[in-house]
Queue: 4 jobs
Job 1
Amino acid sequence: MKRASWYLTAGAVAGFAGVLGLSSRTTPAVPVALKGSRPAQAGQQAPSSGSGGSTAGGNGSGGQPAAAGQAQSATGPVTPYGYGELDVRVTVSGSRITGVTVPMLRTAEPYSQQLAAQVIPMLKSEVLAAGSARINGVSGATYTSQAYATSLQAALDKLHRR
Amino acid sequence: MPAMPAGRARGRQAGPARVPAPTPRPVLAKAALLVAGTGLGAVIALTITSETGSGLRASGGLATFGGSLTGMIGTYLALLMVLLVSRIPAIERVLGQDGLVRWHRRLAAWPISLLVAHAVLITVGYAQAAQAGLWHEIGTLLSSYPYVLIATVGLGIMCLIGVISLRAIRRRLSREAWWLVHLYMYLALALSFAHVIVLGPAFVGHPLTRLVWSVAWLATAGLVLGYRFGLPLVRSLRHRLVVAEVRPEGPGVVSVICSGRQLDKLPVAGGQFMCWRFLTRGRWWQAHPYSLSALPQPPYLRLTVKAVGDHSASLAHLRPGTPVLVEGPYGAFTRHAQVRPQAVLIAAGIGVTALRSLLEDLPRKSAPVVLLRASRPGDLVLRKEVSELVRHRRGQLHELVGNRDQAGLDERSVRRLVPDLHRRDVYVCGPEGFVTSIVDLAGRLGVPAEAIHHEAYAL
């Protein structure tokens, strides 16, 4: 048929533009939250929370206001991602992140549990190396990584506010 | 002979004459192309929007993204390949079964290559991300990711089918063996479906996308079942064709005359073919395409076949009363394709069968020029019928008998026989080499591509 490729291309452009237009309006919550929290500069804020001696007394950890070198912990909100949901608990000692754990992990299927179990240690070491929530994430587990980073960032923000 | 039932089953305005074949609507084929393109664009956009910058920068991110993209495009093209051979009547009428199959053949290597690339890229990307060896990662993918194992089996089947479809290998296989193996493509696609939906980044957390994708595949499956199996079955049951007579027409050529019910309601255009399945012990499992050599004359339907393979040769021994299942009619080699007032019809060898029924469909006084080519006088089958039809339409008939040097069709002889060829539509039917040479010739003589119509016989 004549001009077959023309019709095909016209359709492709329309379909491409249509989906892009739709998705920019209805982007899923996870990436948006991540983009919002990312520029918050976790690495620089954590020290200020430590050295500033924290305005309100930390309710959970230690009982004493955080002095430099004293460990403080906070837990981020439960963050859903495509395959399940998780939250992240972070421990900051002075200006350094000294521990990250995942107290709650719930997944839709057993395999996702397996996958998360593989991925979470990798994310943990990324965070400890970076000293912040600004991590590259684990390829093949993009959504898990995003949820992890989001919850972690929120936990760090909590500590900062204290 | 079964009696013709009185009264029409469906009260449309068709007169006592046959139901004509529906007119092809090229706009539908264009709309289908637009829709196919839209889907392709949407699939690419979905894959891109489901990826994030951080994901791309992560180790293995690029390979994984490439894997998603090739996987999605490959799967979507596979869907289009299935649609191309699903015999949707509205599209088939415009492009013809052989036109659709040609597209299918031309494009089929793409989805398979893309899906192989998908498997490789995903494995490499995941291995980089997990900092694992390739072999270890392959094991992980197959054992711990859901549905990846069966999808891999599906990909293996696809590759096997791709390999046997390579020209060099395809030629060595019998039509039936090749066709049977080809059917496994449906199984391969079904096996791969689940892992796409469950693992594809464009689908996870996007229930709407999942729904649309599933509906598209279900609809495709429905079209295939309906038009490849349902409609032929309904037609076969409705017309209840049986072999009435087998008549020799020339050396190695027989006409099989079938009788059936309500053949006035079979929408046939001259020049079309059907796939025939003769229900005898050795033949019931294979359907072969043969042209109708005449428009239906209720209660009769005629096909004319030359013995070139096992199946066509065996038709001479068909017994009257043998039940027949049919598929079709198919083909865009009809008068509907004509874009100019007058036409020249050219056939070589057994190609005369399609020409004969096409000629019958042309209006009176349409003054067609008909060229028949054969190596020996005996091979000019149906010549009396053709000459009578030509006479009734005030046309001219030229018979060219002999070897190619004496009676071939070259630029000079065609110019001499049909001086106004460049102003006519050209219909050509015959063996593949012959058809190609005439199509080239007509193009050189100034006939535009849309006025050249052809149907080649693949042996």
Job 2
Amino acid sequence: MTNSANLIDVKPVNEESYGNVVPLLHEIRHALTRFQESGETTTIDLRRIPMTEHDENQLENFLGVGEVSVEINAVGPTHVFETQFAAVWHIEHRNADGEIATKFIMVTSVPDLVKTQPEDANRSIRALNQRLNKLTKNED
Amino acid sequence: MKKNKEQPSVDEVLAQHGVSRRGFLKFCASIASLMALSPDAVPQIASALSNARRPSVLWLPFQECTGCTESFLRSHTPTVEGLIFNSISLDYQHTIMAAAGDQAEEARREAIRSQAGEYLVLVDGSIPLGNAGFSTIGGQSNVDMLRETAADAAAVIAIGTCAAFGGIPKANPNPTGAVAVSDIITDKPIINISGCPPIPVVITAVIAYYLTFGRLPDVDENSRPLAFYGNSIHDRCYRRPFFERRQFAQSFDDEGAKAGWCLFELGCKGPVTYNACATVKWNEGTSYPIEAGHPCLGCSEPDFWDAGGFYQGLFPWEFYTARPRPGGPGQGPR
């Protein structure tokens, strides 16, 4: 049995930084300018950028939280929110265990994932028809 | 058994499991991120996977400890990655299949006949060449079964360090004459997913990549997918700032260890080990060995078992001559 008194408390390295936050914010600024001028959307995969917990907190604090927030429940939760900078969205995908799968910054008007997908709409038509038919038969 | 073209598409299988298109797109975004593809590739992945036929997979466990299988099958509660794996037609895996004996072997041979040129072969475990009797399945030696099964395969995926490089069975003095898959099969595309065990999601990501692009992903000089093995553990280690400041723990319970300092002088092989443990992590994304306070053993590298003691620090000359990587950093400290 483990004696908890003997466990070594390893301190998390929260204060360290890779120094990537400011360059990333400049990248977001350029993407936002392109979006405003030409409508070009940009997706930045945060997983590919080395960041410590301190860096991630610094980024999230800088971007802040804006007016729109969406929760999607599709094979685990996805949290989408517009940051305080309009058209700059933060997307966090988690799997069914709640583990973070990916994190993105999207510069767009509305992330595509928020919109109803045509394939799901088609399935909805079939499901609605089936239920309506069943309901109609029951009433007959 | 259905011919491959009669199999439902991956998208259809996922829909049968109640996965919405949103969930599917989310999976595609995760795969793109894992494989270091541009987020712009997500529509291409979605389109390709939507039309990809359910692939037939023959999984051959040879001279192994079943750790690779355990790692994968016990990895997560249902996720889309798991569902992708469920969506393949796993026609042979003698550890977990219901059929046994001649029935199991007939299932494998039927898959070879009906899916010739289209099926994938997964292998875990090394192959003993010293004596055919060291490891047999249904009376057939591992090497004969591998040659027979791989002959008509589209590609071979070597799972775990034993299949990829010979692993622990090949460790000195290698009593069984263990070799890697690539020592035997030389005329098929082979990709190595090394690790003891390997990270489970890498397997599904490689299969999804194959279904999407019709080929195996780009690999390093050890035939490992660059997306996962392109950076050293050291490159992405959260303790790296301590290394740069030369702040090293000297024992497992000194003040440096308690302060989370670098484990380099306690034998950490992170600087010469290429894997995605520091970014993908283990146990449902909880942590990885260094985060738990233990040096990296270097288990995804060839001959790791014979590379000195696990707690013997890398000599400076070993570290400073860490091989340069095409397309990646990993050239040691600057």
Job 3
Amino acid sequence: MATTSVMGGAVRRREDPALITGRGTYVDDLQPTSLLHVAFNRSPYAHARIKSVDTAAASKMPGVVAIFTHDDVAHLGPLLAQVPIGKLRPLLSDGEIKHTGEAIAMVIAENRYQAQDAADAIEIDCDVLPAVIGLKEAKSDATKVHEDLDSNVLHTWTYHGYWEALGLEDQTPLVDAAMERDDAVVVSLEMTNQRLIPVAIEPRSVMADYDLGYDRFTVHSSSQVPHALSGAIATMFGMPLSDVRVIAPEVGGGFGAKLNVYNDEILVAFASKQLGRPVKWTETRREAGGATIHGRGWLGTATIVGTKDGEFLGYKLEAIADMGAYTQNFTVAIPLLGLWIASGQYKMPVSWTVDCVVTHTMTTDAYRGAGRPEAIYYLERIIDAYAREIGMDPIEVRRKNFWKKDEFPATMGCGFSLDSGDYDAAVDRLIDVSGYQDLLKMRDEARAEGRYVGIGVGSYVEVCGFGPAVLAEIGFSWASYGLPAAFNGTGMVRVNPDGTVTVLIGTGPTGQGHETTWAQIVGSELGIAAEMIRVRHGDTNDLPMGIGTFGSRSIAVDGAAAFNAATRVKEKAAKIAAHLLEAAPEDVVFEDGAAHVAGSPEKSVEWAAIAKAAYQAHTLPEGVESGLEENVVFSPGNATWPFGTHLAVVEVDETTGDVKILKYVAVDDCGNLVNPMIVNGQVHGGITQGVGQALFEEAVYDESGNLLTGSLLDYPLPTASDLPYFELSHTITPTDVNPMGVKGIGEAGTIGSAHTIVNAVVDALSPLGVKHIDMPLRPKRVWAAIQEASN
Amino acid sequence: MYPREFDYVAPATLEEAMGALGEDAKVMAGGMSLIPLMKMRLFSPAVVVDIGRLPGFDAVEEQNGHVSIGALVRHSATATSPLINLVATALSTAASLTGDVQVRNRGTTCGAIAHADLVADQPAAVLALGATMVAQSSGASREIAAADFFVDALTSALEPNEILTSVRIPKHGPGEGSAYDKLGRRGGRSDYAIAGAAAWVKMDGGSIADARVALTGVGTKVSLANEMAAALVGTDGSEAAVKEASQKASDDVTIIEDLYGTEEYKTHLASVFAARAVLQAISNVS
């Protein structure tokens, strides 16, 4: 029993039996009596002016209870964003359509089919206007996306300029000067980091039940951020937080798409309040494709300057990032997450400019990695091109420019400090576990046979563990929903009267196994088997505040909170146990579910006895208050900065352009590992989504703004059979930002993999002179690059 | 993903099924293609006639020189049948590359053929194999040659009152072999065909006596590459000869561009996979 609570143990996930046997409860499983259903009428046009909305026929159709349009809901005001730059989407269209899929009317009916029939029957008459889709076109301001904005460029992030209070130096002159040096090698590439659709197996789903008797809401939502939703509803409806209970039950994937609060969640709550009945909406797969946030969508030119022998002298990125039409939660701030890691693992001056532009498309926001995969992609692709240019091994080039182990904490030009790192150790491990020298030999032999085999290497550093309270100043907070402006961690540890333990945490997991990991954290600290511990999350009635799960933040922030709460519980329990054992508290140790005096395990008191004593005043030592629970809010002083280096071996069929991944090796360092199996699961999923971007996925709007890839028919996702076995390894460089020395691993695989695959394919085709291919590396693009290089 | 209202009937006999068919009715076997179309409201029949409970249509049978595959034979059964693998190799390969495990366990070979998708695998195979479609309507049965069956994208020669009850494929005789190969949308052979080809050859004394090649994924419909087949006949079937003939692979096809390939690329792939399929078919000759 005791082994199951050990930190660092590959404990099987306690969530899995329910989920694997189909017994988990998701929002769409909830079917209260008198439930009403929602369908939206959505714009088929990207840019249009509505002349009329005729709901007369639709409202008479069978089962239709109500149809709401803009005027019905305008009084609630638009749902705010946290980063208030750009245009907010009206709850229902105010007459100006800005992207396909924008909701015009909301139909409530007795069943989902009737709702859809009526939504289809609403007659919309509108003038269709020209759409702005391309990023360069948008930046040119030739056509405005929003007439009342001065420019399509909402904001420009620069490396030194995002945080004026820090007085950072503009390093652009340093980079430019380096380019003028006689010995400078300058390599530059324009590259696209394409728009992606975050596909969760469970689409978004929300059910609101307004209690007419007590004027309060119970809302179930497939959300990564239940407390934020609670705050948004309370703010918009002018209600106290205590009357808005939000529950996120099982959530089947999110990847950032469920980190937003959405208009539809507010509208469903509104409908329930208007109609006095529970109301539910579950998005269709097509709505998930076109009306839930997208990710990435960058076009940029990366330039690196270095010496002929591999010393980096500077790096410059000039990019345009697609915000979509409207601003949601963190939209305009997503590139900032990339900016902070713009220099990767390397010591060098950086000039970084990203223009955030609006287009007539769906909003972009956080998708697994959020800004960081983009930043690392540009950096690591151009480093690879530079290494090829000077004829140096890509690992050696990187190593030559790494921050060295004894330089941490290392302050970067962006003002942040890397907490800890040992980049050489990760690379050494990679060379070792991948058999790098043998791989090079194998590649060269294959080339001699006329085969196109390539090896790609990519390093990354990322930033997670959000976060430090200072981030709230730039909008990384839930302040616009009336909530505290800091991304603190929350953890409550409660020992129940029978000695079992309930842990309440402020996360919003979507499959990451928090119920297992937190049981290990708390169990290990208290000496209690994980089986005796129940972890609860996602119910705003449990805890006053919870930030949710995103940005690989949970373990480093909420994990630390729970750890500290467990430590405090243990301190109090030691006093009680000492009293029962007639010993001194400082001599008490906890293991195997009981307390005993160090060195005397034969006389012990079980947690049940300690708990029982804790809840009755007459059995407590003097000065100890009744009860045995602690609630901790943890505020980290810095983010955490995980890192790693990945390697891929690919073979290209030069006749068809088909890419086959022969081998994939990842060395990641996320500090201490609580549950290595769960960590590896996160790396697996992360790499898979990175490979998906590299090879398969692309959200495509045509020039009229029609989304051509709105269903899975045209949006290919990687499956297990498309992928090689991932060889995973970890180095461990703990952080001192939190007491467990953990950093976070949710996004590392995605941040580390896309460029690694592209680097490998370009290496495979380098004998032909191919220098770059834009993602996704579908066979047609690879083939076209081969043709171009061959001609 | 919510279909419009429709009537659902699950007849117990073929006669009942015939009675339920009409202009606005649609036959459903596995439903793997029909249901998604209905859920996206791209297709909304008034009546769905589920033939899944009809007895006697789930057999793979040898009938004097042919193998007959009934209307309810699943992709997985076609893919794993030793008989089909031996005497109609291209079809068993095509069935094994159709969809994923769930789709193969639910969808049917006849359903995939009747659906006539322009990027599907098995229609190309039955074209190359020179199969015959057996269509049943009320009181009448007719046979349709595969070459006449695939009319356009998602359009077959079946009348609204007809059910494709079986497909009959000539068994490979001495000197004959067939094969199917494709490039899938997720690379390798995964997913719908970006380009795919099925080939059947008859070898005689070291040269190709007869051949049929069919293409999928590249054109407006699955189609026979007759010019290429004609160019193959009389050659020795060497790699050089096949590759040369494959330059005519798309002569009979209207190539169309999609998200996975330009016209130029698809034209190129048509030749590549036509050649690969023919060479594999030759090596499959027993």
Job 4
Amino acid sequence: MKTIYFDNNATTKVAEEVLEEMTPYFCELYGNPSSMHTFGGRIAEKIRNARQQAACLLGCEPSDFVFTSGVTESDNAAIMGTLAAVPNKRKLVTSRVEHPAVLAPCRDLEAHGYTVVEIGVDKQGRLDMDQLEQQVDEETALVTIMYANNETGVIFPAEAIAELVKSRGAVFHTDAVQAVGKIPLNLSTSNADLLSLSGHKLHGPKGVGVLYIKKGTRLSPYMKGGHQEVGRRAGTENVAGIIGLGKACELAAEAMNEENKKVKYLRDKLEEAILRTCPDSRLNGGEPRLPNTSNISFEYIEGEAILLMLDKYGICASSGSACTSGSLEPSHVLRAMGVPFTAAHGSVRFSLSRYNTEDEVEYTIGVMPQIVKRLRELSPFVAK
Amino acid sequence: MWEYTDKLKEHFFNPRNVGEVADPDGVGEVGSLACGDALKLTFKLDGDGRIKDAKFKTFGCASAIATSSVLTEMIRGKTLEEAAKVTNKDIADYLGGLPEQKMHCSVMGREALEAAIENYRTGGRKKHELEGEVVCTCFGVTDKEIERVIRENNLKTVEQVTNYCKAGGGCGGCKGQIERIIEEAAGAKAKSRAVPALLKGQKLTNIQRIQLIQQTVNEQIRPALRAHGGNIELIDVEGNKVIVGFRGMCAQCRLAEFTMKDVVEARLREFVSDELYVEEDADSARQPHNHRG
């Protein structure tokens, strides 16, 4: 059975071109870029090249970021590093719909005496800018708010937030892991101080990410050890990963606009058909929205059951239901949006990529109504 | 991905006995849409008082659907006395086991069966009713239910209790209470969480005392407030005066009948020192919220 992969906000396929670039750096060119000998030293040159590729996608200087082990490390480093560098301020502002990589460290800091304010969102998943305006004050060390939401694809006005935060003298960090490669960035003209991204969400490898640090931003190193990355992030470079990430950035920069058009066309087709053919379904998340993401709730049925049914047809998606997360409560994002529990339990996220085809979309459109109908036959809540 | 047995998957994809028995002798309903799973069980008896037909309708994940399906298979042909002996463990075993985090599905099956038998015998309630005192307000689980899953499944930890009956799986504010129920069930003398209990009453340095106050706020007070959209901030400690600020709205909160200040004070006295008293800081006191009673 063919696999139809609609879970690209979870992770993506590594592009063949990326793998090809990476392959020599395991068994042949395995040197340490910090070494004095030529064998290791030439690796440093390759890393510089990858750095340049990533800088092009981000629209910044190659010296404006460090490579990390992924977006979770980048987020933790941004939060912990900022607070360590600004010890006189004890307030953090974030949103209720952040990824756990941001929410968990913030809540942990709350237990250590920091004031943490979580800004709410409206029914469409859009950030409450008035509340943000009220909350960011001279006590605020850091504002950390995502660029685009991983569950709904809703895009936040990162530039407007960055400007506000700058005017209040705080540091602004944004987790842009879902946005990079889908939304054009030009960090040289942005007021964002810190930005996180990960390789594996844009057809690069897992285990490598970036933390962008605007020049002049005060940040204490989070990983302490060797002198790599000019002392800003210790640890021997993930050479193959960095080279793969660089290539993935290059590919994304080249093809972003064209791919977005294609991906959006497929996403819209899938979304429109499902909402039309499945009764009592609703879309979660308003515009502006990532071109690849669609979060749809099906009333009276439960998300995990839908995913398993889809799985039988080879279709990969994800859900905000309680049962899929191992916790007992449905997605914190959907709850923050005020999506009723009943709809949150039956939510399914489809996230597409450039590798999806129209055939895959049509196949999924074909099976979705039967799955919903089948599960509703089992449900005690559907009106007879 | 959950590790489901082949038997479970088979029952999920091909559930038996879906629907409702016409003119049923017993009806049992448990769970709700909000909880994430719900089961309606109906049965019909034959002339000898054996279950002739049993059917189900279930809203929930694959394991909820599969446990409902096997439950109807298991009880067919049984007398009500025999059926009443079916435990959640029997249901899980019949499926070749359930992932730990899904054990509550088997408990839901047993509860629906009990409610249906009760409905047949008394003609009264169809719903699974709450017995005892509610411990977990997020999922509406009582002390009696918690005691029962502990006893029937020989549970030792709060995490296990959450897996079996959901209690403690929401805001987490009742975990201390669940721990006490586990200890009581094990015959140990009831005592509160280990660390505060050990420290309370001992001579503490100022630093230790403030840390204990912070810990109590973090573990005993904040989770319950957070679950209802509120929050608490420890602002300062001056001698025995603990200054806190409240934030957020807590509509529909069962704590609203008390003043929040009193609740915090009681917890701090329980876990830290009987001499502590609480004051609300000026900023917080000016804000409108439901908790001031």
